Amino acid sequence: MGTADKMLLDAAHDAEAIYQLLDHQHIEPFIDLNNRTKNNMATASDIQISPEGIPICPSGNKMKPNGFDKSQNRRKWRCSPSCNCSSTKYGRTYHTHSSDNLRLFPKTVRGSEKWKLIYKRRTSVERSNKQEKIDYKLESGRHRSTMMWYMRLYGIMICQHMDAWYV
Question: Which of 72, 87, 100, 132 is least surrounded by Cβ atoms within 10 Å, i.e. has the fewest?
Fold first, then answer.
């Protein structure tokens, strides 16, 4: 078996210790945020961080992601020049380091197209689990042996494939 490079989990697993473990194992986490707080976090500058991990400029606008710097392991955020929070032509920029808060600043930005594409896999697995447990009544079996549970599970999986192919 190979090694995992991504881990898809639901909001129940949104804990700093899990992020640290996955970072130590060089596994990229894809975990829904369990919004414990609705308040913005303050930073050393005049930028605030939303509960979703998105920097907010002094004018109150959410900044847009503007790339990831692999060499320094940080994400660049940019506020448009039309927002009057900076006098530069390029607009205000801000960098977030994954090491500052692994939970709020994952390598892939939550809500981005890449995030949605990868996270779709988790929801498809959840639908499959629901079909096995509820539709095919996996836990209704009154078996005592492991072999009979495996036989029941294999039968359910065959039915799932038949449903997918012929319905």
Answer: 87
Provide the b/e sequence for 63-87 (b: ≥16 CB within 10 Å): bebeeeeeeeebbbbbbeeebebbe
Q: Provide the CA 109 distance to its chain's centre, in angstroms.
A: 8
pLDDT tens readout for residues 66-109 = 888 888 888 899 988 888 787 888 888 899 988 888 888 888 88
State the Cα–Cα distance between residues 29 and 68, nearest whole angstrom.
16
* Dist. CA 11–CA 14, nearest whole Å: 5
Amino acid at residue number 115:
W
Long-range contacts of 77-81 (CB under 8 A, 24+ apart): none
